[in-house]
Amino acid sequence: MSEIKACIFDLDGVIVDTAVYHYKAWKRLANELDFDFTEEANEKLKGISRKESLALILSWGGVDKTDAEKEELARRKNNWYVDMITAMTPAEILPGALEFLQALRQSGYKIALGSASKNAGIILDKVGLTSYFDAIVDGNLVTVSKPDPQVFLKGAEMLRVEPAACVVFEDAVAGVESALAGGMKVVGIGSRETLGGANLIISGLHEMNLETLKKL
Ligand code: G6P
Ligand code: MG
User: Fold this and answer.
1) Choosing a second label site near 122 at 20 to 30 A (CA), which of 2, 11, 55, 87?
2) Cα dihedral sign for 130, 96, 111, 119?
């Protein structure tokens, strides 16, 4: 068993509650196209790229669009989403996230971000957390989406830490699978029913501390 040396964090739904903003913007788009989707269906969109999310949503609505139309729809959704995230402040950091990042830093752990979002940089900047990360892997750097392990393996590589010495924090089914496929430990943020494969399930980073981390 390797000693834990690094933590890799998903962003949306782990550090900030932007998962809600993604949901609102996708729902608005679906409603404009005259259909709706449930919060349960939304779980499948977590951790999935913008393009793949749109393809899933259109398939749920039974709607066919050309590539050019899809691009326009994804652009429209992203504009609404960006309007919401540019208004974010540090008050929107989820409970316990800042404290845990500070504790990790003080104890010399390496920290990376592993997010599918192309907007990750703006969000970290708006909530004032950019300086906590030794490496930032976002949707602009990855070529394949979670559940492929690429995003987290890239993070580990940039930190120069072997995958087995990394713990990933994830709220998405696809993200938990991605971390496990990369040979990492994973803490699921959410419910056991959805994130069954994780090594530990917590409801938020306020439940996390260095002692629990060392026992993983
Ligand atoms: C994260 C979210 C997904 C989102 C993806 C792309 O993984 O969990 O819901 O679709 O990022 O985000 P973007 O900001 O690039 O549209
Ligand atoms: Mg997430």
Assistant:
1) 55
2) negative
pLDDT tens-place string over residues 139-154: 999 999 999 999 999 9
- For residue 81, the CA-to-ligand 2 centroid distance in Å is 15
Token pair of 55 as six digits: 């393809």
pTM of the full structure: 0.95
* Tens digit of each residue's pLDDT (9 = 90 or more) over 29-61: 999 999 999 988 998 999 999 999 999 999 999
In ligand 1, the atom with minimum distance to the C-alpha of 74 is 16
pLDDT on residue 2: 76
Q: Which of 16, 42, 50 best tests ligand 1's pocket when mutated (most atoms within 8 Å of CB)?
A: 50
Here the tokens at position 13 are 């739904």
47 in Cβ contact with 116 (< 8 Å): yes
Q: Is the dihedral of CA 208, 209, 210, 216 positive or negative?
A: negative
Tens of pLDDT, residue by residue over 75-115, are 999 999 999 999 999 999 999 999 999 999 999 999 999 99
- Contact predicate 140/115, CB 8 Å: no
* 6's tokens: 């690094």
Distance between CA 105 and CA 97 in Å, rounded? 12
> Residue 80: in which H helix or E strand, if any?
helix 67-85
